[in-house]
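Blackboard transcription, Thursday session:
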Amino acid sequence: MTTLFRKRYFPQATAAQWRDWHWQLSNAFRSQGQLERVVTLSEGEKAGFTSGGRAFPLSITPHYLSLMDLSNPEDPLRRTMIPRAEEHLHSAGERSDPLGEEAHTPVPRIVHTYPSKVLFLVTDFCATYCRYCTRARSVGSGAWKTSPAEWEPALQYIEAHEEIRDVLISGGDPLTLADERIEMLLARLHAIPHVKLLRIGSKIPAVLPQRITPALVRMLKRYHPLYISIHFTHPNELCPDVRTACQRLVNAGIPLGGQMVLLKGVNDSSETMRALCEGLLECRVKPYYLHQCDPIIGSAHFKTSVKAGQDIIRSLHGHTTGYAVPMYMIDAPGGGGKVPVGPDYIEGREGDDLLLRNYRGDIYRYHDPL
Ligand SMILES: *Cc1c(COP(=O)(O)O)cnc(C)c1O
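(Written on the board underneath:)
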């Protein structure tokens, strides 16, 4: 499929160029005009470009576009990448900074919401921009510099705060940086005695698997314990190149977690989520969190009810491998942090008995006097 796509739309490109992540980035689709060279946009998609308002950028790597059904505007991955008219609506409860991250930013690039862990936003650049991005207000603006000087206040903050034992490097996508830049960050953080754990949050293995080169992986494995959380959306992403990328990372001893966002019309069916979570386990990625879509402005068309998310988790637990079941989370608006929202398997109490509902829906008693 990928080869056909390359031959059809990039007849000049060799297989080696296709496998080069720099080629993928320089040939990413970044405008309506570029996209229309390969996709016939629907009226709703065209309106996404023209009805003004939000200036959130477009970028889709050739790799990622090759996984989409170009004849179907409802293709799940396509819905997450190509703007639509609904993006310009402002619905109740939506905010540009729903998580109140700006209020928890003691120095630029740091979000310190929880006592012992921080989010370190090292770049605003991504290989592809998700239309539901929680940081749509700042990501992809091109306003951030990713020079080491820009990171210095954040690094000094982490060095000065001994309560920080876990640093989550995110952005933007940290794996879009050059190997030397990533190494500079990891080396500096790794040398801080109170920082016991490093994590990278990235979508790169799913959208630009060519980036996961043997050289990158050899460098990353010098900074253990290092975990990588990967944003996945749909089983259609799990192509051979993505499987290889995950395999390289895991074989370097890097535990991988899958982070999914529950999205209407994309992955909000039990069958799709089960195929994704089981597929991730086969790639040795542990499905970690299923996030309720954050209420950024223009996201209503992606939002499902919380009950829909709980039903999906119920359809997984007991029906597949326990490792395949993510925790369903809502990031509390205003900076409350992430809250696990079930589903709940405790039905209530009867005297000294706790009433438990199992995966089949049957009630069992567990003696548990208060
Ligand atoms: C999600 C998040 C973290 C990491 O949370 P975990 O539950 O440990 O994965 C840390 N800081 C902020 C601000 C976050 O949003």
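Lecturer's comment: The chain has 14 helices and twelve strands.
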